[in-house]
Task: structure prediction
Amino acid sequence: MGKSSQKLAGFLFGLLLATAVSGAERVELSPTHPDSYTVVKGDTLWDIAGRFLREPWLWPEIWHVNPQIRNPHLIYPGDTLVLTYADGRPLLSLVRGSRNVKLSPSIRSTPLSTAIPAIPIDAVQQFLTRPYVIGRGELDDAPYIVAHADEHLVGGAGNRVYVRAIETDDHQRFDIVRPGEAYKDADTGEVLGYQGLYIGEAQLQRTGDPATLLLLSTTQETLAGDRLIPVTETEPLTTFFPKAPDQPVHGSLIAVLGGVTQIGQYAVVALDRGQANGLVPGDVLEIDARGETISDDISPARWDKVKLPDEPAGHLMVFRTFPRVAFGLVMDATRAIHVLDRINNP
Result:
C-alpha cells in the first residue's frame, strides 16, 4: 500500500473511532436484521448497513473496531459481520475471512481496490471527473476553438483545431467544455454556476496564437467557441463513508444528470447546495417530495388554497462537491422523486 493509501486508511480509521464513541443509543436496528452476514462480491457498504440498520448512514456508530485487523474499516468479500451487544447497545464486529494476499518478506497487504465500495461506483464513475460545474465568468479567459483545420466547420476525433491562445506547453492535454444550462437556487433563482458540457479531449501539437491541437476523442461535434481546460492528473475520490452532514442543510434538487428524466434509485442529481454550505462527499441527505398547493373546494372562502405537507421520498449521498453546487446519488426511493424536491438532514 502506498503512502497516500496509508494516510487515507489512517484518516478513515480515526473517523470511525471518533464517530463510534457516541450515539449508538439512538441507532435503530432493522426489524429483519440478521445476527451475522458474510460479504459477497457485488455488495456495497450501504446495502450491508441496510441489512442491520433502519438508517444505513449511522453504521459507524455501532462499528466495533478490531485492533488485531489491519485496515479494519475496509470490508472484503468473505468477511463476516457479526451483531453483538455491549451494555444493551448493538455493536457490529468484523471476522476477517480468508482470501489471497500478496506476500513479501516483511509486508502482507491486500489491494484497496478489492474492498467493497460504500456505493455502486459504476453509477457515478463518469461524474467523478466530468461533467464540470462552471462558475460565472470562470471560462472568460480560457482558450477557445477559433477555427477547424482543413476548412471543416465542425470537428470530430482525428481532426485538428486552432485555439486561442496557448502560448506554453505546460499542459499537453485539454478537456473541451461547452457552457450549458444555468444551475439556479430553487428558492431565489440566483445563478449558482453553469453546467459544463464535456465535448471531448484534445492533444497540443503546436503552441501559439492560434495553437494547433488534435482532437483525440469527442462525444459530439466541436464548435467554434468551445473552451479548453487543462486535464489534471488528480485522482478522483472513490472511497466514501456515508454520514449525516456536520451542520444543517436545507435545499433542493435542481437537475438530474446523465440524460435521464426519471429520478429513482442510483440516479445522479444536482443540488443547490455545495461546499459553501458545509457539504462534503459522503454526506447523506433526506429527499422530501414537495407537497402540492391545491384548491380547497370545501372552504367557504372563495379561492382558498392549502399547501400539502412535504413527504419523505428517499435518501441521497453526496459524492462530489463544488463551491455552490453538489452532485448526489439517490440511494433509495420510496416514492416518485422530482426536480425541485427538497433536501434536508436525515
Summary: DSSP finds two helices and 20 strands in the chain. The CA atoms of residues 173 and 244 lie 38 Å apart.
